[in-house]
Amino acid sequence: MRETTAAESRPYHHGDLSRALIDAARRLLESEGPSALSLRAVAREAGVSPAAPYHHFKDKGELLEAVATEGWDMLNQSLSAARKSAQSVKDKLTALGVAYVVFARENPSLYRIMYDGSRNKEELPSHVHMEDDSAYCQVRDTLVEAGADPSDEIALELATTAAWCAAHGLAEMASFKQFDTLKTALGSEEAFLRGVFEHMKIFADDHGK
Amino acid sequence: MRETTAAESRPYHHGDLSRALIDAARRLLESEGPSALSLRAVAREAGVSPAAPYHHFKDKGELLEAVATEGWDMLNQSLSAARKSAQSVKDKLTALGVAYVVFARENPSLYRIMYDGSRNKEELPSHVHMEDDSAYCQVRDTLVEAGADPSDEIALELATTAAWCAAHGLAEMASFKQFDTLKTALGSEEAFLRGVFEHMKIFADDHGK
DNA sequence: AGATGATCTTTACGGCGTCCAGATATACTT
DNA sequence: AAGTATATCTGGACGCCGTAAAGATCATCT
Hints:
2 copies of one chain form a homodimer.
Chain A: H1 17-32, H2 39-46, H3 60-85, H4 89-106, H5 108-116, H6 126-129, H7 135-145, H8 153-173, H9 180-186, H10 189-198
Chain A binds a DNA duplex through residues 1-2, 5, 11-14, 17, 38-41, 48-52, 54-56, 59-60.
């Protein structure tokens, strides 16, 4: 039980196998897709035996969770950047939504792991919902900036949830080939995304009647 | 090559193994969840050898596709019923959305297979998008009934897509525990769903400013 | 009755997640 | 400096999995 030493962080044989395993997993994820992401393949990619990961992760799920956490961090950064670069206040929310979908489109395998990988399907990862500057909180804050009433907590939560659902739904749909004609008709994928977000008002609209 | 006989539909040994396999798969899906849905387990449940399914389905994916197809049919029926029972024209679209999410909540494993199971992740199943009375077409028709301009094809497609994304996003989120407090604050899960749909207009709203 | 061909079983292969028993190298104790 | 404990990695094993090939079985057609 040595807990007093200074150079605590550097492990023994490999250097930093946890890190290497996560990197190997992300490499495999990009090159071969989620279905090729077996624990054995990750170990192989990292150059260790199939059982080695078990000294750093309880099981495969825990490794995937670590990968997913990095994905959420990346997403938070993407949203943060989009938030800053948005021109008008009014456009900020849509910019956030577009950034969300673009992230999912550019990292489809990682995005899948972020929702699928955590073996606990009954709740979102805590850092999505709770921590400051989490993706969810950024959306909520942006809503307030855009004019939502921060004192009406329920309405604010509903609106944040609505934005989140819209972005997630679109993120999973946008890759389907069926929308290709629509994308070309509108000129670009981003135009398509913005168009969809604009039409989200359909649920509260009377369509000019 | 006997193709002339009348009693064509009834196979040889088992009676109707394809049917039995699909039923066994759906039984397993409900009782054990999607992760327990191995081809061997399905064969076991149906009382045949592990290789028997290969005379009726090319591989595991094709069996899952058959299961998914039944799911889409069920969903189409749910939407159709909701469409008829909606009170006002204005409420029809939201009723459709609620019915969609309720279906996904009541058949979570099946819903997952419907999107995950088909090994072609690049397009939706054809009967979702193309056939008459498919879920997608029902949404589009309802939009027209509610006042959308049917001559502006692009806007109509965008609105339909927006509705579909909203419902799918909410369907995947609604099961998360994080929203429990919101649901109880609003009195019921349906109130929560309607609340979220109402707030979808956020993307085109100035929030009273 | 005999041939045909679809259906099912048996057996087998490689890959998977995971556990366990050793080997090895590092850190702590004295 | 020596010795012990402990964290790390390897090799092998177990029972699953998806799938393929070869043989048995049985309804149908001639």
